[in-house]
Specification:
The protein is mainly beta. The chain is built from no helices and eight strands.
Length: about 100
């Protein structure tokens, strides 16, 4: 899934002046903005957003050599982290998450 409700906002894979990054909206134009510019050059292309145990998980590529891996955020910039690097130096390309 490329969009997910989380903490009263809708997070989605979007682009404005940046390439594809994680964005959010409260349903209004002033309440719509980029959440994180995870990849400074090019887009991180966040996908497959899933909420689990209070965090928003998604697949993304930060451009630092890990390719697409599993990321998590609590909605804050300081709360953004790679959840796990399953394939160091190559992407694990995690997709189709489900809470089990």
């Amino acid at each position: 899934m490329h969009l997910r409700a989380y903490q009263g906002l809708l997070y989605f894979n979007g682009s404005g002046t940046e390439s594809r990054e994680l964005w959010y909206t409260d349903g209004t134009l002033p309440g719509t903005d980029i959440a994180f510019d995870l990849r400074a050059t090019g887009g991180s292309n966040p996908e497959w957003m899933t909420v689990y145990k209070g965090l928003l998980y998604f697949a993304a590529d930060d451009g630092n050599g890990s390719e697409t891996e599993l990321w998590a955020t609590d909605g804050s910039a300081s709360g953004m982290t790679m959840a796990v690097d399953l394939a160091t130096g190559a992407g694990s390309y995690p997709y189709h998450f489900m809470v089990y």
